[in-house]
Amino acid sequence: MTGLKKIQRLMGKTIRRKRVWIPLVILVFVYVNNSSLLAKPKTGDPYLLAHRGLAQTFDLEGVDWDTCTAERIHKPEHPYLENTIPSMRAAFEAGADLVELDVQLTKDNRFAVFHDHMLECRTEARGKIRDYTMADLKKLDVGYGYTADGGKTYPFRGKGTGLMPLLDEVLQAFPDRELLIHVKSDDPKEGVMLAGQLEKLPRDRLQRLSVYGGDQPVKALKERIPDLRTMSRESMKQCLLPYIAVGWTGYVPSACKNTQLHLPDRIAPWLWGWPNRFLNRMDQAGTRVILVKGSGGFSDGFDSPEDLKRLPDNYNGWIWINRIDRIAPLLDNHN
């Protein structure tokens, strides 16, 4: 009995030790596998995404989905209007690596580059953009509704006539540039139609394009062009929820491959391996990660020197910018 008790005591001690060191080993593994301190750091400056080209900015406080932002712009510091070819060209010349643009379907089933579903905020016309042909839209002044002083003056009236471009015109104007196309609806028909247009492009051109927007059009587009980098709210969930569950192991879910993620900088630090491990994993999966300032609200970007201080040390991933003319000169490789 004495020998049996000794064996039992030894087994009890062994079990108690395992209860301590097994969780400890797991914790060490999780730390080592996800610590950016042990990951190979990247070098270079961040990559810059210019939201709507070089655009007029506005006060974000109180902005809702139907707010007319043209009626609340800051005092203009440059002559460019969002979503126009001159604004995109100015953004690239200022140092943008990628320009984002919005598309809307017209009455004659063409893709106009314009942000709003309705016309009265920025132009002299009224009604839905899909109720007009592209020929009609070409006659409008896209600078008509902009004011920085509550309607006392309209500094861009008469300067935006004819500047609403077709998506085709943008693709032709910037054949070798990276573009991010925003589908502004949740109509699957638009995804099918956009796929019909984009799939005609050479493969190397498609590799420099990406698309995001409503769940339904993005899903329809991805089904037609599987290799195209896309993003929607649903695709983000399909990637990030399983990653949060198992990403500590280093596993990257299949839904995270060949896609795009727009991550608010207040949420990104909660992801396994942020920043370097996470970014390396996504790079290997063919996925582009774009960091957005704040909590993911209305297009808040890294638009000031103070905003850049929010970035992780030595961060060289993609960042969302509304004032490329201000930010690019602050970074050595974008001038």
TrEMBL record:
Name under which the protein is recorded: Glycerophosphodiester phosphodiesterase
Residue stretches making up the GP-PDE domain: 66-331
GO molecular function terms listed in the Swiss-Prot or TrEMBL record: phosphoric diester hydrolase activity
Organism: Thermoactinomyces mirandus
Domain of life: Bacteria
Gene3D superfamilies membership: Phosphatidylinositol (PI) phosphodiesterase (3.20.20.190)
Keyword set, alphabetical order: Membrane, Transmembrane, Transmembrane helix
InterPro entries on file: GP_PDE_dom, PLC-like_Pdiesterase_TIM-brl
GO biological process: lipid metabolic process
Membrane as UniProt keyword: yes
Pfam families (UniProt xref): GDPD
Transmembrane segments: 20-39
